[in-house]
Amino acid sequence: LWDRSFLPPPPPPPSRRLVYPSRQYFYSFCSSSSSSSPSFSSSASASAVTISYEGAANNIAVVTLNRPGSLNAMTVTMGEEFKKTIESLPESVRCVVLTGSGRAFSAGGDLDFLEARANDNPHHNTEEMLRFYDRFLVVRKCKVPVLSAIHGPAVGAGLCLAMATDIRVTHKECVLQFPFSALGLHPGMAATFFMPIVAGQEAAFRLLLTGDKVTGEEALKLGLVSCVEEKAEDVVTTALEMAERIAAHPHVGIATTLATLRMHQDAAVGGLKAALVREADAQAACYATPELAQKVADTKAAIASKSKNK
Hints:
Blueprint: E1 16-17, E2 49-54, E3 60-65, H1 76-87, E4 95-100, H2 111-118, H3 122-136, E5 146-150, E6 154-155, H4 157-164, E7 167-171, E8 175-177, H5 180-183, H6 191-199, H7 201-210, E9 213-215, H8 216-222, E10 227-229, H9 235-247, H10 251-266, H11 272-287, H12 290-308
């Protein structure tokens, strides 16, 4: 295995207010949906991650991935802002609801980032991937429950992030997918760790090896999510209502129960840390293959062509 030591990321810029811009296009690997986006107030903020506070006591933090033009594709900058946002939550916060702006929860890893990895060397890519995971998996260190409100497609690393949270809410027609195999890439960001724990071995093998899309309705049957709404616009509302019920309970009992449940998860199948190292090494090996570089180039070209024809 390659040397896995790495430096901490530089301090990110501060997070700003919650933003929910208007409808956006889908990547080619996301199914089109007729569901409308959740309706919230918008602002001109350019922050990749935004935050607002909800609930009767303003003790529920709504954290939003905010790159709607790219379906909230996950970048280094977004990761740095996300980590700073989670680590800087006020002590008064009792629950976090994580969602995305626009029509998607997240389309996964940014294609420019993947292209850069394909042009880098395996040693450095292992370090880069561990840093990338660490920025987003800070949710595992959050001392209050984190709920994912998956109102639109959650794909690749976007779905990995949702799987790392404590509770997931979506709607019946939502698209969820791990498309790693189609790119010739090993899954990352703890997908191979959380999938067998949350959904079982059979679902993990099927979804990670085939890259099949599943709807929110099927995801509920497989155990990937806890609750499924009829409409996309109801997802964030339902997540907030659930967060309010959690926040209403005495804090110490919730915090200690959460810590115990995560402790059991993180110690399973060899431990979360070992799983992340394995995934980073495997992804670094995949990035060195010509097949992956070609798949990324083809996907970027397809998106550019689709945008040009609109």
